[in-house]
Amino acid sequence: MLGLVVLLLFAGGLACAQPLTLPQAVDEAVNKYPATRVSLEQVSAAAATVNLARTAYLPRADFLGQINRATRNNVFGLTLPQPVMPSISGPVLGTNSLTNAWGSAAGVLVAWEPFDFGLRHANVEAADSVRRRAEAGAGLTRFEVAASAADAFLTLAASEQAVLAARAGVDRARVLNQVVEALANAELRPGADAARTRAELARAETQLIQAEQAVSVARASLAQLLGVEPARVGIQAGPLLALPPASPAQPESLRNHPLAQEQDAAVEEVKAREHALARSYFPRFNLLGAVYARGTGNRTDGTTGGAFSGIGPNIQNWVLGMNVTFPALDLPSLHARRQAELHRELAETAQYHRVLQDLGGQRERARAQLEGARRVAANTPIQLEAARAAEQQAQARYRAGLGAVIEVAEAQRLLTQAEIEDSLAKLGVWRALLAAAAAEGDLDPFLKQAGK
Q: Residues 344, 420: one domain?
């Protein structure tokens, strides 16, 4: 039984370590990276705020119930509004006694605003504009996480290809060093040649170490986005190791870019707040209805009732009416707030145009980068073929005693560099395609092409 459990756990571990394609890595990063969850929760909070603004259409009902034991002394006079002294009703008896009695009250007050000149609708629209901006921000976050994950994937793929080329360079340098040392030991070649090949082998091993270090760093970066340990990150390059087919550019409107949409939502949010302020300087009408009852143990002749008199409310009243309030002196403050919102609108609009301009420049740079990457990728096979021929000729000349070991070492370095540049050239085209897709604001065509 224990062996079965261990086997299942081991199988589960292998399933978790299954190599990922680029679209799979992007999907996992978008779904797991905390920034995405943060943006989604912000959208939910903004949606709840919209629902809160809609509750302003509902009537308000306040219920009251109280019981007290108090004295009944009452005096003529006025007190300014304050929260300290309780109010008292009834005639002035001209006494100053500590005689006390029970008092009670119960009631309900219902208030409803039948019309508001569009204020509540404007407040709902303002809250909804916050929700739309949060949704645009969530879309921008998902887009940025997806682009970062794709870039990290390509970086890891390029680093692994560099390791393969560097390892091949180490193998060639080791074979050359073994051959030259054997010749030097047989006194067929000078010892300086053996020292030189040992140095070249050490240099090739250093280059391999640096390439492996780059792989570890790239794997850690991708693991950070995926939310897993770096040791569990494996990739499947697939079509990324070949040149992608050339496709005609289909430029999208930059207004559809997630960054532009997020900034446009910011402009609309400010406009919605400004509209709500414009609907604030109007009278407020409230329809009021109340039913209440009071009880007291005090009597108008100065006496009190029985021991429990006044505990229960027994005098009823009701009222139905409407009050109107108008903030007459709020106009200067509302005007100042509208001016502030107007300037914020102008600032956000200018920021929106700056975003469009920056995205246009980014798109042009991405197109130039893609064109250059394709030209480089077309040239590196020629460079690689020539480097292989040069390395073979240098080997032959050295064995025939017509060349120096430095020529062979130089040819091997050139071949290793050509192999690295050729493998990276293809990935460079994919990276340029990613940059072009990011500049357009739509990664789906790139991901579909990379997932074939």
A: yes
Number of independent structural domains in the chain: 2
Q: In which domain, by residue range, is 444 found?
A: 22-58+118-282+329-450
Q: Are 318 and 290 within 8 A, CB to CB?
A: yes
**Domain check: are 206 and 294 in the same one?**
no
Q: Helix 34-54 to helix 119-185 angle, to the nearest 10 degrees?
A: 180
pTM of structure: 0.80
| Structure token digits, residue 341 | 């919102």
Cβ proximity of 363 and 251 under 8 Å: yes
Instruction: Write the CATH number for 277.
Output: 1.20.1600.10
- In this structure, the number of other CB atoms found within 10 A of the CB of residue 244 comes to 18
Q: What is the pLDDT of residues 233-262, one digit of tens each?
A: 888 888 888 888 876 666 678 899 999 999
Tell me: do 417 and 382 sit in the same domain.
Answer: yes
The rounded distance, in Å, linking the Cα atoms of 203 and 209 is 10
Tokens standing for residue 3 = 């062996």
Mind listing the pLDDT tens digit for each residue in 423-440?
Answer: 888 889 999 999 999 998
Q: The sheet that has 284-296: what strands, in order across it?
A: 60-71, 100-112, 284-296, 315-325
